Amino acid sequence: MTSHFALQWNSYTNNVCEGFCSLQKNGEFVDMTLAADGHFVKVHQLLVALSSPYLKSLISSAPCQHPVIFLNNVSNSTLMLLLEYIYTGEVLKWHDKTTQWG
């Protein structure tokens, strides 16, 4: 006789996304630093690697456990928007046609 069962966590996606955001905001379990425009932000390698094949290759080639990656020609405000997108899956920002994105 074989038993089958299914276990489903309905709020899994929300919980994981909110959990990673909270960990990053509190600086918990961060293992990499991104630098842009003179600002340094601690992040999780796993999420950054999942979001970008280019950054994944940089992380893979880093000779240390907590790499610091300098993003040339990227403003801090752009980095923060990218991280918002990586950690939440969306960016909520209003802009007008005179705004220049760097």
From TrEMBL:
The keyword Flavoprotein does not apply. Its main location: nucleus. InterPro entries: BTB/POZ_dom (IPR000210), Dros_DevTransReg (IPR051095), SKP1/BTB/POZ_sf (IPR011333). GO terms for biological process: regulation of transcription by RNA polymerase II. It comes from the Eukaryota. Keywords: Nucleus. It is found in: Nucleus. Residues 30-91 form the BTB domain. Gene3D superfamilies: Potassium Channel Kv1.1, Chain A. GO terms for cellular component: nucleus. SUPFAM superfamilies: POZ domain. This is BTB domain-containing protein.
